[in-house]
Amino acid sequence: MNAIFCIPMPDVKPEVILDRIKSALGYHQQHDRFDDIVTAHAKTFDWALQVKERPTQGWPSLHNWLCHGQAIYSVSGKAGSGKSTLMKYLHQDVRLHDALQSWAGNAQLLTLSFYFWNAGSESQKSQKSLFRSLLYQALCQKPSLGPIFFPERYLPSAKWTEFPTFHDVRRAFKHFTASLDDDSLKVALLIDGLDEFDAV
């Protein structure tokens, strides 16, 4: 008589799974575009985050929108006009983060960014890379989102050979947006170069 013994696999700690997920999501060119953008002089874009809206401005106050606005604030301009430099400046200015925290109120704030670059590598212009980068940043700021984004990764049967596929990250991003319904979490996205977006 033959007997089959099932030996249970040892439990893997959630933090180990999270580290594995983050390692798979990250990629070595993730910050290249941001690093390559020229850093603006300290006073060049100071006007952009001034609290008082100037009468001559032809657009809504960015600072007021950051504190109280909804939906999308779009910055447009001709190629080479400095849009990416402005985005980098805003990203690094503490006033932007203070204003966003005012908007978030008592909710936890996640500030996530991505810089598209059509002249760069595939990872700098694809939708998959956008999802990977935003999910990676979200997990760095709020690790408890791991089981929400990728519940199947926490199963003993999880296979890691092809992770993450485009469908993995797209599905995870849907889980992410669905998790924002309880108002305990606020997310601000700083996306540069949407006109250079390759929808693949």
UniProtKB/TrEMBL annotation:
<dbReference type="InterPro" id="IPR027417">
    <property type="entry name" value="P-loop_NTPase"/>
</dbReference>
<feature type="domain" description="Nephrocystin 3-like N-terminal">
    <location>
        <begin position="61"/>
        <end position="198"/>
    </location>
</feature>
<protein>
    <recommendedName>
        <fullName>Nephrocystin 3-like N-terminal domain-containing protein</fullName>
    </recommendedName>
</protein>
<dbReference type="Pfam" id="PF24883">
    <property type="entry name" value="NPHP3_N"/>
</dbReference>
<keyword id="KW-0677">Repeat</keyword>
<dbReference type="InterPro" id="IPR056884">
    <property type="entry name" value="NPHP3-like_N"/>
</dbReference>
